[in-house]
## 1
Amino acid sequence: MYVQQHFGKQGILLVNLGTPDAPTPRAVNRYLGEFLTDPRVIDNLPGLAQQVLVRGIIAPIRSGIVNPFKPGGSTKLYQELWTENGSPLKYYGEILTAAVTERLGDEYVVRLAMRYQQPSIESAVRELIAEGVSSITVFPLFPQYASATTGSVHQEVMRVLSKEQTIPNVHLVNSYYEHPLLIKVFADNARDVGPLSQWDHIIFSYHGLPQRQLKKADNSGCHCYKVEGCCNRIGQVNQFCYSAQCHATTRAIVAELGLPEGSYTTSFQSRLGFDDWAKPYTIDVLEDLAKNKGAKKLLCFSPAFVADCLETTIEIGVEYQEEFEAWGGEHIQLVPSLNDDPRWIDAVVGMLTERMGEKVLTEGQ
Ligand SMILES: C=CC1=C(C)c2cc3[nH]c(cc4nc(cc5[nH]c(cc1n2)c(C)c5CCC(=O)O)C(CCC(=O)O)=C4C)c(C)c3C=C
Ligand SMILES: [Fe+2]
Ligand SMILES: [Fe+2]
């Protein structure tokens, strides 16, 4: 087999979604303004209308800059989330990047980027190019593919690279939703919490996505939300369906832990707007479990996220917990996120090196 020679270092770009620079209304407004004007995120508004609506109304209201009904808005939630190290999403991304850099050694240059706000993909890619890397592997910190997340990251990387005279080898990682290394870390984290038999039910709660975006990922046009249980198996027709990938992640963790059928549910959270999103909604599942099934103690996985963030720590850990208690439940125990867990760092290094089949040569070899 012929092996392509590389001279110099290989670049790795770890990318997460992004987070505000500070828990202030201005910074949150700036973040949401950039995030929600991405046509891959809000994909059903014409460009100019989206800019005007988001920057003039949605972001200011949601951030709490203007909000007569719910003072504080998302800014208040970010203030609850904020730690002495700042936003956990960014902080753990920095730790992961430093650890991967150390583990991979001198032949690699590793950079962290955020799709929205700082550090930008543009600055990180430029740094890699300035280092003279022979390749760039883009590794989004989203196990499942969605156009709104991974697709947007890849588009932005390609936009930045398209301005370069020389474009190095580029590897875009689409997803790793059932990679055994990832699955093992989630499963081990759940085992660490204690015996699984103590939970009345186990929830796998993923970030939601509008159903129209799920349908767009169905190339056949006749599978998603048309075939009963369309996401219960994954194959050629729905391999890039976010919901199908989420269900595949659940099945893999369930198999690793040996969970009995009926003891767990896959659901989706963080719905925004009035359209239908991926179902069932986590909040509805919680209500049903508390009111109709008498569930008191739940274990909740968040396998769409690799670090603590607003959607896990606050939305599930505080808001859903309060609702669950009001319906008669007692406690929702979050499976700790992957954060800076050494097993997660090992998993990322493993997934990256697996893809680096090509030999690294230094000048003169
Ligand atoms: C994990 C994958 C994610 C998908 C898919 C996703 C889709 C998606 N998100 C919104 C709107 C918002 N998301 C927000 C926060 C947020 N989203 C993700 C990940 C995914 N989003 C993360 C990791 C975070 C947390 C960031 C942090 O700083 O902690 C927010 C901001 C918070 C809020 O105001 O609620 C919004 C808004 C849409 C519309 C969407 C798909 C179309
Ligand atoms: Fe989101
Ligand atoms: Fe589906």
Note: Residues 180-334 form a domain with the Rossmann fold fold (CATH 3.40.50.1400).
## 2
Amino acid sequence: MSEVILELRDVAIYQKENLVLSEINLSISEGEFVYLIGKTGSGKSSFMKTLYGDLPLTQGSGNIVEYDLRTLKEKDIPFLRRKLGIVFQDFKLLPDRTINDNLLFVLKATGWTDKNKITSRIDEVLTKVGMATKGFKFPHQLSGGEQQRVAIARALLNDPELILADEPTGNLDPQTSVEVMKVLQDINKNGRTILMATHDYALLLKFPSKTLKCDGSKVFEVVQKNV
Ligand SMILES: Nc1ncnc2c1ncn2[C@@H]1O[C@H](COP(=O)(O)OP(=O)(O)OP(=O)(O)O)[C@@H](O)[C@H]1O
């Protein structure tokens, strides 16, 4: 049995006083690739935010990469996020510095000091996403797909146990989406667990995998033909 990386029991998620999702019971094990789908406003982002500590868990119980979401303190959040690689729809690269310096910024902020190790880690993650020759460029000099690959590389820097990707292809054209998806699939094949929120049903058909759906304030697993 592979290790459980995320487990939620009887969880309800609120935005302010509004109930967004309730009675969530699910678990994700090491090595899985899981989609989270649902219409706009169905609660995908709220769900993801709860997992990385942006929305406090106030009802039910939740464990993620060995953190208890219910008792998570403000000071624990940076440490939780080191064990998670988070990828957003809008890339969130720092526009005023090169790709290498974007990655350097994260490594320094997470305690890396050895220059040789830093250089080789940056090279390693950029190679993984096929961007090894572009480290000297600024974000605006890259296409959307390339920026997203860099954002994925950044998420890999600290060897996360789980990657949370919130609409990672949301700003990309269909062909570029497939390329970014292939990068995520490769990373998953190398053993990394990935939870990806998306409303891109074409991707689901092309790369079928376990699928959770947010609908009518519930989250449930669906079989592909019912997506
Ligand atoms: N900061 C907030 N304050 C109050 N309500 C919010 C906030 N963020 C989201 N909501 C509400 O919570 C519900 C779920 O929103 P959420 O962003 O999680 O959905 P989503 O499925 O990710 O949608 P999308 O695909 O458009 O991002 C919506 O009704 C939304 O209006």
Note: The radius of gyration is 17 Å.
## 3
Amino acid sequence: MNPEREIERVIENDNVGPVNAALVPRYAGPATFARLPRLDELTGAGAEAKADIVVVGVPFDTGVSYRPGARFGANHVRESSRLLRPFNPAQNVSPFAAAQVADAGDVAVNPFDIEAALGTVDEAATALMADGARLVTIGGDHTIALPLLRANARRHGPVALLHFDAHLDTWDTYFGAAYTHGTPFRRAFEEGLLDTDALCHVGTRGPLYGTADLADDARFGFGIVTSTDVFRLGVDAVVTLLRERVGDRPLYVSVDIDVLDPAHAPGTGTPEAGGMTSRELLEILRGLRGMNLIGADVVEVSPPYDHAELTGIAAAHVVYDLISVLALGAGAAPGGPAYGEAGTTYGN
Ligand SMILES: N=C(N)NCCCC(=O)O
Ligand SMILES: [Zn+2]
Ligand SMILES: [Zn+2]
């Protein structure tokens, strides 16, 4: 990177962080996630410079069954992430100081050939992870979780999966097509990518095609924490049961933004009423701190259906808290939020 520009960035622990919002207005300049450096700006700084955590976009929505637009999702989330600040008090961590985080830009995928697109995502993810970086991918529709699981399972073996979504996404085919946004986790099961002792959907709701959907899903090994379960049990109990189910296995987290109620995330392709709040989702994700998180995706943000960046902002905060869990790393103490350390808040 250009040393003259370093002053414009927050640099802590030798990690190059976001553009400094006190010096450069946060609405100025090109959007990277959280105004972080691009990966190629880091690698330009010398051979030793590499990222521990990489944010990458996949502009792809050829797998959708209803409203399109998720091909624009990654850049929308980047634009909606300009207000994020360097310290995350909810997890008591400065994620961009604890780890080098960078934005790798977008994977150029074929919009006319789904299987070719899946191959390209797998190759790109594998290359980005080659020197140990962990990926947070911004979709794109949910089809892209399959190649991301392929890349992660090749590295770690069959992975535990926490899948935050209104939908099961373990359906078989649509119009005879096997690779769609409603089918990635059935394909992942069939391909042996999943550790079938450690799978759970969270936030499930909405009508199904029939009871066989649930029987198939259970056969693949998934547990289900419905949206209503989150409401009835509360986030702490949900976190406890997810941690028990997964243990210290390599864990992949896939967040379909439609897990949120359409009031919290209207900009998505297949909305369902009765969803979680963004507060509930963020708090459950924070509860994963210290688990062996190996990668994550946040998918199904469709900006043409968004209003006032509601969905983009929710997704940006989800990515930020996932990066925070990754930056803290496996084995990090459960700990608590920074709030209350100075005795200024209640409930900690
Ligand atoms: N993965 C998402 N967002 N939706 C799947 C819905 C599939 C269907 O139309 O039944
Ligand atoms: Zn969904
Ligand atoms: Zn989905």
Note: The pocket of zinc ion (ligand 3) is lined by residues 142, 165, 167, 169, 181, 256, 300 (CB under 6 Å).
## 4
Amino acid sequence: MSSEPEQGTTAGPDATDATPQTESYGPDDGILVANNLRKEFGGLVAVEDFSFAVEEQEILGFIGPNGAGKSTTFNCVTGFYEPTGGTVWYQGEEVTGKPSYEMVNAGLARTFQHFRPLHDRSVVDNVALALVEDSLFSFSGLRGGTKERAAQLCERVGLADDLHRLPDELPHAGLLRLELARALATDPTLLLVDEPFAGLAGSEVERISTLIRELREEGLTLVVVDHNMRGLLSLIDRAVVINFGSKLAEGTPEEIRNNEEVQRAYLGGDL
Ligand SMILES: Nc1ncnc2c1ncn2[C@@H]1O[C@H](COP(=O)(O)OP(=O)(O)OP(=O)(O)O)[C@@H](O)[C@H]1O
């Protein structure tokens, strides 16, 4: 918590009450902090007065039903959208509205729900191109060291046997692993993972969860976004639940599971 809260009652990131009051966060409350975030699209308020903090080396679940505002929030903190209001801090520095390439350089990487590999390049080349600073000028001249590092990253995510396959030859879980390797190639401190479990079989959910846990053990902080709680609550340390663009609840998986407001928001859904 900041020593001088900006407004309202303070609950702060340490609060375990699963039904938060109005909160105010400051730059030192976590590795990534958003305070009173707001995003409007024309007349539509997609995110309103939304505050949260990500603690170093935790796996935070970012949960909410379809249309709740998860992607919009995600896009506001990774520099894809400029917030209409509020403040974002990363590693203590204010980064509100900074473009995505600056956020990547600062150590904040993300995966995309819809994979976007280069379809005519091999798995290892896709990762190598994410390693080099300006891929456009490096297409024809990948150097040995780059390839070697790319191969290591492929191995790290479980693609050691797929280095020379084309992305389209990979199963869905393989494409997710490739997406993770491309994000890791930017050497992040914090990785936001967008809907990793969508389209995965139960056994794959477990294997990807293991990989995410291992990445955390190696020092990474992770935020995992999903509307579906299947698999997620057993992976994460803590969750923030968003609904109608505002925070609905925050707490441990157990607190989230037992929270009546969350249950209502997911009525008929998959809690
Ligand atoms: N670029 C945009 N222009 C206009 N409205 C948008 C835009 N992006 C999102 N919205 C609206 O903002 C609200 C929040 O959408 P958002 O995509 O952030 O939700 P979400 O929680 O990520 O949903 P999902 O789980 O379906 O991906 C929705 O009402 C959506 O229609």
Note: The longest strand covers residues 44-54.
